[in-house]
Amino acid sequence: MSRKHDYNLRSMSNLMGERWKKAGDGGERSLIRAPSSASIGSHGASVGASTATGAPTTSTSSSSAAAAAVGSATAASSSTGDLERAARKQFQQDVTPGFVYVLAVFSALGGFLFGYDTGVISGAMLLLKKELHLNALWQELLISCTVAAAALSALLGGFLNGLFGRRVCILLASFFFTVGGIVLSTAPGKEVLLTGRLIVGVGLGIASMTVPVYIAEASPPHLRGQLVTVNTLFITGGQFTASLIDGAFSYLQRDGWRYMLGLSVIPALIQFVGFLFLPESPRWLIQRGLTQKARRVLSQIRGNQNIDEEYDSIKNSIDEEEKDSGGDGPVIWRMLTYPPTRRALLVGCGLQMFQQLSGINIIMYYSATILQMAGVRDDRLAIWLAGITTLTNFLFTLLGVWLVERVGRRKLTLGSIIGTCLSLSLLATGFLISAQHSPPITFHPLDPAMANSTCSKYQLCEPCMLDPACGFCYRENSSALLASSCVPVNKASTEQAAWGRCSNVSLMKDHTYWAYNYCPTSYSWLVLLGLVLYLAAFAPGMGPMPWTINSEIYPLWARSTGNACAAGVNWTFNILVSLTFLHLAQYLTYYGAFFLYSSLALLGFVFIYGCLPETKARRLEEIEALFENQLCSCGASDSDEGRQVEYIRVKGSNYHLSDNDASDVD
Ligand SMILES: O[C@H]1[C@H](O)[C@@H](O)[C@H](O)[C@@H](O)[C@H]1O
């Protein structure tokens, strides 16, 4: 197809759908309402042609064309709908070269490592604690130091991103992942292990904030949501792979953990080598004044299409943004003092906070305990079954990738958080009913050590299970519990009691079981149902959207800093929620804790409903305008979404439909 013909199709496609033109700032910036799609037969072709040749398109001509179009609107609607779809399809095929997918996949390996390194430790810990005789403090240290390092390095990543660019930061992150993996797999003792986990954490923080930004900046708008969401798909894919590797190497009692922790070196190296050849983000290059290079990169990732308009549009927006943002001083200060970026930052950080407060990582880390409650007593089987949790998370994130450009970010996030809130209530109800039917303690062993133990005072399994110093030892005879007692836990290993029948695996014959952190119950199906529904609701929306939305809501000058802050908030709340869960359960009980998470999710719904605007299919440069209104006035504009009113920013009077614009028509 000739270039000109191709352009006309694009222009036609652009001119369909309603667009408002609102005069503004002396023509410097205006918002156009173009003729409705039905007008294409009578006016669209000529307007399209004039636009294609670069003729000025003024507000008056647009409005009169729109007015003239109203009459023919109904009759032509269905056939033009088909035409529009065909035009858009043709256009999108033309402008989406494969290179952008290569770029997204190589970057998303950072997401894979994020998921793998945070997921693999739970299985590795089962082996590590036996081989290196780790006490509870060391176990906690090895798990949480990575998340803490990630929180700090995500903040630092904002600075590095601005200074060295996205590509260098991704290279740096994969370097840290590689070195961390090597240190972990060869560690002679726990101190070196701790160092390795810290190094991996630094990589995690940098990757988590850079990768979504890089993908968003390289993608065409109609694919941006999907491609950035692929990064979260890779996170959950990494978590799933980690659970498979954990399962497979759990049979290797000696050094199994070395393989579990060391295997991450492979994707890290692939990413490192790949990024030696991949280009820098064109937007960052333009911002740095490296214009020739930016042009080359843009044309490379747009498959040698004409990139003049996209280039000009980015360049103009950057110049304008720099003026708008005003003032000097550190970026974070400028963000906080400039209302649109302040609002965007609040929305971005709020989303990340509510993602973590909805308890995803409680579910990820404690799914084995939940499965034990459901009657799975074999450790290895529990590890494999925990893989089903991560697989469910992965599969439903895939649904999110499919939905994000269809239903949009706002609806997807709202639907997801309300489902999350309801399924958390179901989980809580499951725990509540289990607690109400908690098995009684029927056997009080007469051991002298028992006299000064708190465990002796409990009459039911529930309070005994909630006391971290105690566990529940019982015999089961065709689902009836016999001789159940509450006894102190072995301080060196929570897998057995300090003394008595449950203190040694060889003594636990004759259907005798040790339950730490859970009580046997016949209502576990309710909890399992809640768990599956939770993941089905959370994974398509609340899992990926906070990352996706953060990658697109800040103007370029504030993008690295905004994403760094939001990623920092995500990691900080991750550590807060996962470290406080067991204590919270102790004070509020399990059902109390889950009702609390459910209420927090409800609060998140209110926040998102009020404050999150739809960013689907807008050019990154247009999104700033969405935050010009007062924060938390988005719910009021919900009805606008249905009317398909689209606002496009025009520089000067000579408006060209940019390459990106075809995707704006929906
Ligand atoms: O978006 C991701 C994803 O949902 C993961 O499953 C979760 O572990 C992360 O904390 C979260 O940030």
Automatic annotation (TrEMBL):
Reactions that this protein is recorded to catalyse: myo-inositol(out) + H(+)(out) = myo-inositol(in) + H(+)(in)
Composition bias, Basic and acidic residues: 20-31
Membrane topology: Multi-pass membrane protein
Repressor keyword on record: no
CDD domains: MFS_HMIT_like
Keywords carried by this UniProt record: Cell membrane, Glycoprotein, Membrane, Phosphoprotein, Transmembrane, Transmembrane helix, Transport
Subcellular compartments: Cell membrane
Residue ranges of the region described as Disordered: 20-58
One example GO MF annotation: myo-inositol:proton symporter activity
Ranges annotated as biased composition (Low complexity): 41-58
Main location: membrane
Ranges annotated as spanning the membrane: 98-116, 136-156, 168-188, 194-215, 227-245, 257-278, 344-366, 381-404, 416-435, 523-543, 564-584, 590-612
GO CC annotation terms, alphabetical: apical plasma membrane
Limits of the Major facilitator superfamily (MFS) profile domain: 103-616
Record's keyword annotation contains Oxidoreductase: no
Family membership: Belongs to the major facilitator superfamily. Sugar transporter (TC 2.A.1.1) family.
PANTHER family with a match to the protein in the record: PROTON MYO-INOSITOL COTRANSPORTER
Function: H(+)-myo-inositol cotransporter. Can also transport related stereoisomers.
Protein name (Swiss-Prot/TrEMBL): Proton myo-inositol cotransporter
